[in-house]
Amino acid sequence: MFLKAVCTIGVFFSALHCSAQTSFAGSWEGKLNIGTTIRLVFNIKDTTDNNLYSTMDSPDQAAMDIACSHTVAKEDSIFITTLGGRAKYSGKKIDGNYILGEFRQNGHKLTLDLKKTDKAITLNRPQTPKPPFEYISEDVVYHNEPNNIQFGATITIPHGAGPFPAVLMITGSGQQNRDEELFGHRPFAVIADYLTKKGYIVLRVDDRGIGKSTGEFSGATSEDFKNDAIVSLNYLRSRKEVDQKKIGLMGHSEGGMIAPMIAVEDKGVDFLVLLAAPGVPCLQLNEEQLAALFEKSGVKKESTDEYLELYEKMVKSSLKTDDKEEFRKQVNKEVTEWRAKTPSYVVLETTNISDNRSQEKFVDGIVNKLSDPWYKYLISYNPQPTLRKLSCKVLALNGEKDIQVLPGSNLVGVKECLDKSHSPEHETLELKGLNHLFQSCKTCSFQEYAQLEETFSPTALAAISDWMDKNVK
Questions:
Q1: pTM of this prediction?
Q2: What is the pLDDT of residue 84?
Q3: Which of 217, 331, 369, 438 has its Cβ near the most Cβ atoms within 10 Å?
Q4: Cα separation, 156 vs 356, whole angstroms
């Protein structure tokens, strides 16, 4: 979804055991302030050899039962380390129910006080479909023989004789499973359930390298993901239950950029449903996204504008070379020059740079991000020429509160392009009160995605099915 990583504290850990004391056994819950408040729970257990074993839950990030690598108790103190030492917790018990301590990760030290709890942590996701289903749900595997990639997917088919109209779903950015699962939300499963009950076949697919799909995700670009989706489209066409004249694509975020790329090459695509799709050059989209996120964080517009001046220079430098070390030197030079002319408070609130060491850390992060082949492809891509070449039916939706693909520019851009295209029927809708994931939001911040129980707005589901019933069925 263009921001490839949602604000996480790091969640991939594994297990070892160390010396222990039984008084720490149990579940301990605390709140960590990382700009927003997230809950952390350490579940500490005794082992048969008198050691301690811990798992960690981060329920607001939908990360549960994560094994910790090292747990040691010494008198009234506890020390927990995650895999590779990326995060550490240390605390001191002050009575039977409280531990006062701190959480360290990536050079940051945050207060994390814990309270003993007997409450089981669960994530309430009421829209997630549960069997028995009112339709056929079949897990399938198929292959892209030339590249030796296997794809795992779920196809849902209405009961009845058919053939039925069909839609292939294409995920947003980052490595996504077939349900586009994030924070316990499974939006593609929710959409597939809704549409299949309405009489549509839906195919949803694991991205390469996740779930039942093979292939290398690292280093792949939107062009590669487009080719993967074409394999899935051909599989959908191979199913006898599918109405061959009524096959469409539904893409979210980056998937909404990929779907038109396929449709201009394949005139057999009957319709597109674009969910928060880019409608302006992706560099512009990315800068607007950064500005919106800064605004949500309380950064003044003047500070944001000064940072975006630097950011655009760094992006343009990344496109001029494939030599990572050369690029690193150029970025370091640009940051140094920018710091020299920029008020220190602006530098600090936009980059967290306060000294040479923090500058080095910032530069490393920027170089790794902007050197990524996926990012370089994306940032240089302009979706508008492709949108203007479309000749199929199109529905484009954006949430009014989307701060990742802003509707004010992108939905307008999509409409302007479609008006100049050969699309026989197209409609753009901005849906009130919805975020990038099409949830009914409150603060509408990036961090709120995990906190909301709604997975996908019923208003958005109805808008999709109403349009498809009118223009596809």
A1: 0.81
A2: 57
A3: 438
A4: 55
